[in-house]
Amino acid sequence: MKDWIKKALTKRIRQREIPPDPRLVYGVKFAIAMTIILSTLEIAHIIFLGKWNSEIFSAITALTGTITGILITQKA
């Protein structure tokens, strides 16, 4: 299976593909993994403690915004 993150970050200029920096690909993968882990932590927090944790939600929101910003600006 091809790496969909690398494909999403690849620029195309005049029929030529410019691959992204590997550090950028690893950074996006890390941010996605952390978003998944924090989402799981928030769900566990709600299930076991019955409370909403705004700090965890803030971290999820920040990481989601970072990932979106990277994907949008990399294509521009």
Describe this structure in words.
There is one protein chain. The protein is mainly α. The chain has one domain (20-75). The protein is 74% helix and 8% strand. It is built from three helices and two strands; from the N terminus they run αββαα. It has helices at residues 4-9, 22-49, 54-75; strands at residues 11-13, 16-18. Strands 1-2 form a two-stranded antiparallel ribbon. β1 (11-13) and β2 (16-18) form a beta hairpin. α2 (22-49) packs antiparallel against α3. It is elongated, with a radius of gyration of 16 Å. It starts with a helix and ends with a helix.
Range of strand content? 5-15%
Strand order of the largest sheet: 1-2
Helix content bin: over 70%
Low-pLDDT stretches: none
Count every helix, treating DSSP H or I runs of 4 or more residues as helices: 3
The SSE string, one letter per element, is HEEHH
Measured between the Cα atoms of the first and last residue, the distance is 26 Å
Q: How many strand segments?
A: 2
Radius of gyration: 16 Å
Q: What composes the largest sheet?
A: 2 strands, antiparallel
Count of individual domains: 1
